[in-house]
Specification:
mainly alpha
């Protein structure tokens, strides 16, 4: 089953948190292996998660904060996706 970018980005936090099953992880990873915008968004979200972990001393961020951050990250990611490609960017 082919996934679209919206579905992948909606589930990327599940993958980062280790909360998805192997089949879902494989489907998400397969999509990201072939979709540069999604792998870039995944990398950004992975860095944010890592930063939150470091700054919060390992405490789990409240679900409401995680949800707000996810909404904002998706909004920024989709707005950036609407920009014309930068020919100098690899």
């Amino acid at each position: 089953m082919e996934l679209d970018c919206t579905a992948v980005l909606a589930d990327v936090w599940l993958m980062l948190d280790g909360e998805c099953d192997d089949r879902t992880r494989e489907r998400l990873q397969h999509h990201m292996d072939h979709c540069a915008p999604c792998i870039e968004a995944y990398g950004i979200e992975e860095k944010i998660k890592s930063m939150l972990h470091r700054k919060c001393g390992g405490d789990k961020a409240p679900d409401s904060l995680r949800e707000r951050l996810a909404v904002e990250i998706r909004a920024v990611t989709f707005r950036a996706g609407d920009l014309p490609a930068d020919p100098n960017r690899a």
